[in-house]
Known about the structure:
alpha/beta
Amino acid sequence: xxxxxxxxxxxxxxxxxxxxxxxxxxxxxxxxxxxxxxxxxxxxxxxxxxxxxxxxxxxxxxxxxxxxxxxxxxxxxxxxxxxxxxxxxxxxxxxxxxxxxxxxxxxxxxxxxxxxxxxxxxxxxxxxxxxxxxxxxxxxxxxxxxxxxxxxxxxxxxxxxxxxxxxxxxxxxxxxxxxxxxxxxxxxxxxxxxxxxxxxxxxxxxxxxxxxxxxxxxxxxxxxxxxxxxxxxxxxxxxxxxxxxxxxxxxxxxxxxxxxxxxxxxxxxxxxxxxxxxx
Length: 279
């Protein structure tokens, strides 16, 4: 079916009985995955988490895809999660939501293409986890960031795993205890973002970064990303040993000018296309 954006929607049925939507758009070397939970202001339900996970895996296996972009629809990135079973106390549903959330974050770590967060609006709670697990992040100057869960009598339990490596402990507890939100300039100063741009500049800037990354060796990027996520969980001695092995593994692949990636497949991708995936 078509919606008012001209994109094609593919509808399937999920056991959660919740509609999950992720808009998929192919733009040159990049695949954009746009959270589009219209009825929930882009909050992540379990169905949406599972759909986003599956689209990440599909995108990463696409020979044309050299970069994955995570963003949201309608000037909202992601203001948090919509925990299944929270209102009716169904523990099994709550556990399933947590499992889907953690699976998504774990899968992002295993991808072998760069992941960019295009923060087009509020980025709170679960949205912060998507930001932390992305390699690069560009935000509009009106975006806000933080963990407001405490104001609803909750705590960012799931989000703590991704936040631990992103910000200093004292700042994290300040944000968690107060629920205060950061503006884009402060988030940039703290190192959460690479750039801040105006709303009308965001897509073009992300496109530019994607083209630049597509000009790099995909072999080197894949090996480097894989090594980083392995090393950050190791002791210093183990990390040093692993980095040596990772270098040898990379050198085992010829990444010179005559390597297969020269003249990338991304250059021959068809023009921009889009679809909505619902679960």
